[in-house]
Structure formats: C-alpha cells, structure tokens
Amino acid sequence: MTSTAFDEYERSQWAGRATAYRDSLASLCAYPAALLLDAAHVEAGVRLLDVGTGTGTVAALACSRAAAVVAVDAEPSMLEVARRQAPTADIRLGTLPHLPFVDNHFDAAVANFVINHVGDPEAAIGELRRVVRPGGRVAVTIWPYPPPPAQQLWSTIFDAAGVQRPADLPRVASDKDFARTSTGLVELLHRSGLVDVHCDTIAWTHHTEPEAWWKGPANGIGTTGMLLRRQDPSTIAHIRVQYDQHTAAYRDKTGRLRLPTAALLAAASVS
Length: 271
Known about the structure:
Layout: H1 5-14, H2 18-22, H3 26-30, H4 33-39, E1 47-51, H5 57-64, E2 68-73, H6 76-85, E3 90-93, E4 106-112, H7 121-131, E5 132-142, H8 149-160, H9 182-191, E6 194-208, H10 210-218, H11 222-229, H12 233-247, E7 257-270
Parallel strand pairs: 1-2, 1-4, 2-3, 4-5
Antiparallel strand pairs: 5-7, 6-7
Helix pairs in contact: 4-5, 8-12
C-alpha cells in the first residue's frame, strides 16, 4: 500500500492550515461526532483510535466519555491544536493507509470525514480493520455525492462568477474510487473485510457567520480554497459579490447563515 498523487495533493492542501480550519469549517465537521462515537460503541475504558483527528474534536469528546484515546493526523499543525483540545489523549503523527500500530490493538476506530480525502479508500478502511481487535467496531463519516446544499452552494457561486474548474487536479483513480452514496459506502466497508455494516444519512442545519463560511476557502481550505487562490484579485472580488448574493437566501434575521447539509455515517464490526 503506497501513497497516491491524490494523497500527496490532499496533504499539501491542509499543510499549516489548522488554525484556519478551526476558525471556519471545524464546527461543520463536528456535528456528527457524538453519533460517530455511539456507532463505534465508545464508552468508558474503550481503547479508541481516532484517525484524521484534525483539531481533536472527536478525540476530546471520546476523552469526556472516559475512553482511552489515541488520535493521529497526517498534518503536524493539526496535532498542535488537537493536543490543546484533547490534552488527555495520546496524539501522534499518523497517515493512512500506514498506521504505526500492531494488529488488533484497539477496541474501536473512527474516521470523521477522512475517507473523502484518501487516494485508496479500500486500503484505508482495511487499515482501520487491521488495528481493531475481532469483535471491535469501525465507524466512519463521509460527505455524500451529489453534495448537500451547504456544499453545493460554493459550486453555484463559482458558476455564477464564471470560474473555470482546473483540469489538472489529482483525483482518486477510477479503480479505487467508490460511489459516495449509502450503498457505495456499505459496499466499500464490505470489500474491506468488515461485517454487519450499517449506514445512516445524518441531516442537519449548520449555523455559522457569513464571514466564517467565506474564511475557510479564503484561507485555502480544501479544493474550494485552492480554486479561490488561483484567481486574480478582480475575479476574487467578483466571487465575493456572488457569495453575498447567493448566501442571502440562507441568512436568518440576525444575519447568520443556516445551511442545510448531510453526511453518511457507516459502522461495522471486525470479524
């Protein structure tokens, strides 16, 4: 199992951006955390691995349940923030699909919005399965496709601003990709050797300030941020005009955004 061009691209996108992520999109990704831990049967004494911990939201919540938490992330700046947010967790550098743990080491493993960002999803899930003992649990969340309104909004804004999508971005190879649907995610976990797989759609409304929703891409977060950074100043100004216009319909009386979104949560057992 080796890193792909897509893996390297994803890691470059997140390099040094922990603070920008914490201040913009971390609250969006935090919503399913409790449900993810429930699906993995995380309670007091459970040896949990949180892969792709980011700023440590899931790890901190698991620590509050008195679980024995080890958390890893591929981005050093994320680890710095995560150590502050989850000071009782063992937080280390670690990268899928090569985790620095022996077989059957944990009772459960979780990955919150991580499988969207790996070049070999089946190998990544297989690595989670490898480090969890027989009878243990694996639970993951992903963003679905077609994207929910909150994520689709940025595509609408770029289209309105006439922004062309680059053709040179690395993508998951077709022979390694999977359908970002409930059925596709269930099939992926089955192919990775897990059993008793179940998948739910979680829907919620994300509440945020308009500047926070703009700030993530403006600071280079994700593919949206990469696309925004490639534009010249006048085009960015035009995108901002379209942003203000297209987010107006989602603003409440206080001016905050109320963005409908959804995620897929799949959980399974290790045989």
